[in-house]
Design goal:
The chain is of the alpha/beta class and about 220 residues long. It contains 8 helices and 10 strands.
Length: about 220
């Protein structure tokens, strides 16, 4: 295959992502979100930084996507106070306080496990702090979502969360649960299961300024 052919094939992939992104952005705007599509994680980071007021505190829950785009380092460099609990040196009490600080920050910066073509977001949590922030954080809410998380509908989104996101997160956390060993959802038994709370965001909750940045790259789990 020639370089010209390879480039043409890549162009088609890019154009498909652009069109899919535009479709989902329109759906999100219709639901009351501020929404934008960008092609790369570098553009996503720039979009995030523009949405966060100077000096605002930022809460970041458990999200691989936000760390992959380099948001924590960029925000700290700009002088923002960033609250996040992914620090193995934290004591149990300190971690508990960090979780509270994430929710009370002026900006809650997160991702989603899955997003549907018509703009619904689906998430499953074990602790529930991330879901609480999506519904009830104190200030602006910003989602950054990779194109790999797009699903046709809520049913396929739930299946994606169970079969893809949850097993990979269980592996990341070193959890001894069946889905981590097998690579797909099998209904892990209590008390080991991490699938404890399911949230379907049909629209942003009342009184919250919510934004979604959809990215034309694979990000997060």
């Amino acid at each position: 295959m020639s370089e010209k052919q390879a480039s043409a094939f890549d162009d088609i992939r890019t154009e498909w992502k652009n069109r899919l992104g535009e479709t989902i952005v329109k759906a999100l705007e219709g639901r009351g979100y501020g929404a934008a599509y960008v092609s790369t994680k570098e553009e996503a980071l720039k979009a995030v930084l523009k949405l966060i007021p100077e000096g605002a505190s930022v809460g970041v829950p458990g999200t691989v996507t936000i760390r992959e785009i380099g948001a924590l380092e960029a925000l700290e460099k700009k002088g923002h106070k960033v609250h996040h609990h992914w620090d193995p040196s934290l004591t149990a009490e300190d971690k508990k306080q960090k979780l509270k600080n994430e929710l009370s920050s002026e900006v809650f910066l997160t991702s989603t496990n899955a997003i549907t073509i018509d703009g619904k977001m689906v998430n499953i949590d074990g602790t529930g702090n991330r879901l609480a922030g999506m519904c009830w954080s104190g200030g602006k809410i910003i989602y950054v979502v990779g194109i790999n998380k797009v699903c046709n509908d809520v049913d396929s989104a739930i299946r994606r969360v169970r079969d893809v996101a949850t097993p990979m997160n269980a592996i990341r956390l070193g959890l001894e649960v069946p889905c981590a060993k097998l690579g797909y959802h099998v209904g892990c038994p209590v008390p080991k299961t991490v699938c404890r709370a399911l949230l379907i965001m049909e629209n942003p909750t009342m009184g919250r300024e919510s934004h979604v940045i959809l990215v034309g790259e694979d990000l997060g789990y």
